[in-house]
Each structure stands twice: as structure tokens, then as C-alpha cells.
Amino acid sequence: MAQVPQTFFDALAVRTWCGLALESLGRAREEIDAINVYPVADGDTGTNLYLTVESAVAAVEAVFTAYEVGKPTLADAARAMAHGALIGARGNSGTILAQLLRGMAQVLADGETAHTDGSGLRLALRQAADSARQAVAHPVEGTVLTVASAAADAADGAEGDCGAVARAAYEGARAALAATPAQLAVLERAGVVDAGGRGLVAVLGALVETFTGESVPVFSAVHARVEGGVGGVGGMGRVRTDAEDCAETVDEGGPAFEVIYLLEAEDAAVARLRARLDGLGDSLVIVGGDGLWNVHVHVDDAGAAVEAGVEAGRPYRIRITHFGAGDAHTTGERSPRERVQRAVVAVVPGEGLAGLYGEAGATTVLARPGEPPASGELVEAVRRAHAREVVLLPNDAELRHTAAAAAEQARTEGIRVALIPTRSAVQGIAALAVHEPERRFDEDVVSMTSAAGATRYAEVAVAERQSWTMAGICQAGDVLGLIDGDVAVIGADVTATAETVLDRMLSAGGELVTLVLGDEAPDTIADHLEARVRESYLAVDTVVYRGGRQGALLLIGVE
Description:
Layout lengths: L10 H24 L10 H22 L7 H15 L2 H18 L9 H18 L8 H13 L5 H22 L1 H6 L4 H18 L12 E2 L2 E2 L11 H8 L7 E8 L2 H14 E9 L2 E8 L2 H11 L1 E9 L17 E9 L2 H9 L3 E4 L8 H11 L1 E7 L6 H13 L3 E4 L5 H9 L7 H13 L2 E7 L4 E3 L2 E3 L4 E5 L2 E6 L2 H13 L5 E7 L6 H12 L4 E8 L5 E5 L1
Parallel strand pairs: 7-8, 7-9, 9-10, 16-17
Antiparallel strand pairs: 1-2, 3-5, 3-6, 4-5, 11-14, 11-18, 12-13, 14-15, 16-18
């Protein structure tokens, strides 16, 4: 069905553009991953761009949902788009794309009438290209920065409405992308165009469709490298395969880790951080502003990169990826890693549980309070598990639809996925305890599902606002005890409330109590509850784990 075109840039145009960009990147994701050879041949640029835009879409949709009557302003939608991309940015190209969207938002959100037409779009594209280039410590031509600048240059020379300007930007970007192999030797050797630039062309193609209702031609990412020479796009001859090319184009001796984190810090501190990280590694990109930044760098000393962030402000959502043996920075022919038969993928609410699940062999997705993972993140984790069969543990009742969508997507890629509807991380622990990869898949899934279902779960948390609950009216600051998802106890003391919750759960029987402590739980609560179990419930064992920053003060499981 043809897209109904937008006539000018308003909040609905932002929403439409983000949605179309996500669809376009979804179609091109595997192709972009396959041509990813710079700055690191880790094959994830398409996925990173998709997840970055997915986060922007979620933020824009949240703004529209907040309006029961009417619709948000252009400024509201543009700022949401930029913020969503910033907090969800993945990888080098995703971080740069987030800054491109932020640059556009700075113009679009600056006055409702002045920047909604073609001239406003020209200004937005120019600001996007300039701000992205400034965010990169050492800009390199032949990359997404070159493509963004070419788009802005082409838009500068365009006359007419948003549709005309968008089409000019797209054509300029498309021509620049085709020329990237001539600017960057690693692309020329691989016979491909720049992966990040290919993603930006997809995003700009979505912008054209937003304002014209017409889809744009699909760009071929292969630069048509032929045996015995290099031809232009569409040249004849045998095109080299990605495996052949990537084996030749990886760099020797590059940094061992990719470090990414969000950072709350002042501008002056970020300026010092840039200098510090620039001395530690390469591929440094710091984007954002107004106190919130996304930091991306490749280093050998991941700890030093994180410590630099601590000195600058408050880093969080820290992601460290090791470019391991046979990965991005090794040389020679690389044989693809063989898939394992079965893996477990689990969503966990804190760093401590992530470590626990990881020790048990699970691939984890960290869900911080108020920041549930999107389906794309779960699909990425399933792919990362690199298994023929995957057991997926969402560990949250609110994630069942997200997990189901991720499972369905993974199945279309030939992966056998079983979704166990765990509603708490303690149910996931119970499922992992009986997991046996050597069993038949169906038998293993049944056993894990049975163990999870036999585990009652509870949590102790602090109320953020006054609210009606199953146990009565709570006030902000009250301690809440939730059993199987419903508020069962309202108290004033954390330890006393936890004890009441535990007594109610064990009144129905049980053999094992699992306690998962959050960082803000009282120091003595575990000893107190363990003593309570020993004294009052014979033959019931207790196990205690540290969950880290998990939102709830305490998670309780009773099997």
C-alpha cells in the first residue's frame, strides 16, 4: 500500500519517518551486517542501526500515547526521536546516527513555523551532518560522515517542498555511498560500500517516502569487485563473497574491546573525557548534550575507559564487547563459528543476576528499571547465542508480547525457539537449575517450564506515588510486598514487610527459598530472613544472590 505523503514537517511526519526508517533498516539489516568491514569487521552495523532507530520509534510512540486528545508538537516529537536514539544507540554507526537525528532535532524543535517546510529541512540536514562530524574524534572520509555531508550538500542546492529536498538529499547520499570504496582502501579490497553509509541511505529513502508517498530504488551494497580488477556498480564478473573479503580486510593488532555507556555529565567534564579516551583507543564517538551523552570507544583497557567515565560523571548502561579470537582484529582466514545445539537467552533485571545467569551458560539481556528491552534486542541476543535451538526466558509478565515477537522473528531465520513464560527472574533461576542441553528439546522445555511454574515469586519495593492496590491505598515511600504480581502487603519497614511476605508464601509449603538482594536492600535483611526460615520452617533451604541495581529491593522465590 502506498504511503500517504506528508506535506510538511510536523509531529506526524516525524512518527511516519521513524516507522518507515525502521522498516527499511529491517529489510536491509542482514545485507548491511554482511558488508560491515570498517572500522571493525564485526558484522553488526545493520543490527546496531536497526536497534538505534527502534529505540527512537519507541520514544516517539510514547509521546503520542501520552496525548489522549490532539497530538504532540513537532518539537515534542523531534526531541523524543533524538532522545530515544541517544539512549538506544548501538555501535559506532548507531552512535553517529543518533547524533545525526539529534542535529536535525535541534533545528526542527527550534520554532514551530520556521522549520516545517523545505528550507527548514535543508537546515536540519546541514546541522545533522556538521554535528555528527564534530562528535567523531578523528573523522574519516568514505564513511557515513561523508554520506551525511553529501546529503546536506545536495539538499542545500534543492528548491521546493520537503519532498523535493528529501529526494535531493537521498540522491546525493546515494551517489556519495557508491563512491566510498574509492575513498577507503578497506572497502575497495572488500568490494563493498560503507555499511554505515548504506544504513543512512535507507533512512533517507524513508524520508523521501514520508514526503512523497513513493518508495525509492533499493541500493546494491556490493561494489562489484571482480576477479582480476575492480568494476563500478553493476560491473560484470564474479563478485567476491563476504567471507573471502572479510578474511582479507580485518586489521591486525586493533583494540580488544568496544566500550559503550550512557553518561550524565557537564560539558566541561565531557571535553576532558574526550581527551582521556582519545589517548586510550580509537573509534571514539561522543554524542549528546544537555547533561546526557552516549560514549563509544574501542580500547585495550576497558576498565580504564569506564573509570574515565566515572571521573567525568555517572556512567550507566555500560556495554563491553570483547573482540575475541577469530573476531574483528585477527588476521588470516576465519572459519565461521559452528552453532551450538542449544542455548538459553534470558532477560535479567540487574548486573548481579546477569553474572549468575552467565555462569550458568545463559546469554543475557539486561533490563534496567524503566528501560525494558525491545524485541530487536531479544532477537539480537538469540542470534548472539549462535544456537540451533534456543529457550527464551523473559522473566517479566510485561515482556511476554515482546518476547513472543522476538521468538517469531528468530523462527523466520531458521532458529527453533521455545518461549517459557517466566514472570520473574527467580522463576528463570528455577528453570535454569533443571536445564539439560543433552535432553531432547521438547523434554528440556517441559522440564524447565514445570520448574518455573512451580516457583511462586514475590518482590519488595518502595512505592513511588499514591496508588490503589489489592491491599489498600499506599502512599509514596511505603514499602510494598508483591506476591505473584499483586500487592499483598503495605508496610513501613523493609525487613518486616519482607518477613510478612515470606511467611505468607511459605504458609502454602515449600522446599527452597531464593533471595535476590538489590543494591539498596538493608545489609541485615538476608541474615534476618535466613534465620526466620531456619527457626520456623523445617527442611526448607535458603539460597541468597546479589542482584545489583535491579529496581526491586528484594526478589523472593519459593519452590
